[in-house]
Amino acid sequence: MKRIALLLTGLLLLALLVAACGGTTQAPAATEAPAEEAAPTEAPAEEAAPTEAPAEEAAGDCSDEGVLCIGLVTDVGRIDDKSFNQSAWEGAQQAAEALGAAQVNYVETTNATDYAANIALFADQGYDIIVTVGFAMGEATAEAAGTYPDIDFIGVDQFQGEAIPNVTGLVFNEDKAGYMAGVLAASLSESGTIASVLGTDLVPPVVAFNEGYLNGAKSVNPDINIIATYHPGGLDVAFTDPEWGASTAQQAIDQGADVVFGAGGQTGNGALIQAAGNEGVWCIGVDTDQWETVPEAHPCLVSSAMKLITPGVVDLATMSSNGEFPGGNFFGAVGLADFHDHADAVPQEVKDLLDATNAGLLDGSISTGYNPGG
Description:
Helix content: 25-40%
CATH topology of the domain at 174-306 and 334-363: Rossmann fold
Strand order of the largest sheet: 2-1-3-4-5-11
CATH class of the domain at 174-306 and 334-363: Alpha Beta
CATH architecture of the domain at 174-306 and 334-363: 3-Layer(aba) Sandwich
Number of strands: 12
Structural class: alpha/beta
């Protein structure tokens, strides 16, 4: 009896132990990955690549000597800025089509520290021509030219103080285009006050545009009041701030300005669009014919102070392809864009004055008064 009692007690203890452990038939939960742990092959969302890969990939091995490839690297502006970068990209595309290039791609720079890396994205693939856009990219372009002597570099707005055989600076007499814009602005102004809304004065071409504008306006009306405002930020923000451009333009308009010259990429575009919302105010674009790129400004956009970036890029790419790359500096053409729908609002005597001014600037009988070293 004692043995039976002990046996029953042991069985009871075993049953209680099994019940406490919850049984042995349930699979361990540890084999199921926690929901918040994403697969290790997926990059964290916040760790985006510092540069944007080429926009398109066409057929053709750029390392092949018989294949022509053209790449373009922007400064910190966007490829669709409706101004400077867009004009350069259109030039690269047109050159690629004319020359039968196998590839034409671009990279948009988001951080100035990525200039060299973005250039190398094309150079390491064996691209033949690399267009770098903007004054700020000058140093990185020159360094890349030394590293890749077999590649031709077109530096838009990059004046070459010392010639490098495989670098050509596509530069312009912005002061002449600005001077023409100033003549037009002063001729159209009824209030006697005009304005310019600009990118940073750290960039010489922006200063040249503005100095030409001021002196051109004064050639028409020595007493004209000019409200000229440069963006206070650095190269990383001065050309990509349309909100600041708009508010600055409105401040000038509130002070009586009835013509606004916007010269500063997307920042200047903001000024043009703001001006368009004010009755009786004219606006003047920059770099390209912005009638084609900023339709929101049509109500006020009487013309644009152009530097012909697109044909300049085409010309230099063609020279490179033909083995005639010049090196040093190549001066592109400048001028005023068509008046488009506002042609009837510009009096004939103003048109005649602009024609005479343009002729004088070309033959040197008229000086813009701009002194790059002053």
